[in-house]
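I had to read the description of the data format several times before I understood it. The format is easy to grasp once an entry is in front of the reader. For illustration, here is how one protein appears when written out as sequence plus structure tokens:
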Amino acid sequence: MQLPTPPAWAQKLNTDGSVSPQDCVLPHFKAIKITKKFGEELGLSCAYRQHLMTNSPNQFLHGYALGVEMTFLVERLDTRDWVVDLGWDDWAPLGNMLRVMFAHKTLVAIDDPALDQFRTMHELGLCRLLIVPATGCEAFSAMVHADVSLWLEEKFKDGAVRLLNVVVSEHGAYSAQCEG
């Protein structure tokens, strides 16, 4: 049986299996995407309500362990042939940012008519209030997108890494995606 023809980038191997450094290069690519997921195990448990949904149970305070997924794009790899270091050190600020935003928080929209009652609950130590422009996966994905985009501008001043989208999920059956 004849072996299939190896891909073009592997055809430069010497008979002993070695390869010259100048012949050992990655195939040309236009762009590479990577995805970073922060799942429910991160502890992004929060409660919120959507006060404008008057004919829905979502008008009541309810909670989820949110999941967040971010997709990044690069046109060139770094010196390690990576898009971004997926190790904890590079991603710790993003995980911390998400914890500050969501972990054990009660998120309430700035225009919620019950905002004063939520402020009182916060002052009594009954909740950790975070006042936001709006609530729900749609709003949360836009908020995370804005914050991560600012973080990327600081971390990658040359614009080498771009944020394509952020998906925030309440559970397996519902999520919202913000594209930038």
Observations:
- The beta strands are 32-38, 45-48, 62-65, 67-74, 105-109, 129-132, 161-171, 174-179.
- The longest helix spans residues 137-155.
- The mean pLDDT is 85.
- DSSP finds three helices and eight strands in the chain.
